[in-house]
Design a protein that fits this description.
alpha+beta
Length: about 130
């Protein structure tokens, strides 16, 4: 499982049942996958010097990242390379439950995302 870029500086893992697994079933195993993906990101772009967490599960991911850094040792030392990413914010879904509901599901919304509409009228050739 890897991170998927949804914008220049926004990534997601799009794990379908993670919220249910963590909060209903009490299974935090998905948090380890998140931490592993962030570690993979750091192996490609350098160690991220500032990682902030908002929410209980995000804080658990941060603790896992710190543990994985210690286990990997020299590979993830802060002196190794100049990082291309200077900061990371990990958000727990409980902090922001509305965002997944804000996608554009209408035809005009899709056109707006792809073509960046400047007016409220869209004319498409057949």
């Amino acid at each position: 499982m890897d991170l998927i870029a949804v914008d220049d500086d926004v990534m997601t893992m799009a794990l379908d049942d993670t919220f249910k697994e963590c909060f209903v079933d009490g299974d935090p195993s998905a948090l380890f996958y998140v931490a592993q993906s962030i570690m993979k990101l750091q192996s490609m772009f350098g160690v991220i010097p500032s990682i902030k967490a908002k929410g209980n599960n995000a804080y658990e991911v941060l603790k896992l990242i710190k543990r994985l850094r210690k286990e990997e040792g020299v590979l993830y030392s802060l002196d190794n390379t100049v990082p291309e990413i200077d900061s990371l914010i990990v958000l727990d879904r409980t902090v922001d439950m509305v965002s997944p509901l804000l996608t554009q599901h209408t035809y005009e919304g899709l056109i707006d995302e792809v073509l960046v509409l400047k007016t409220v009228i869209s004319i498409l050739a057949r």
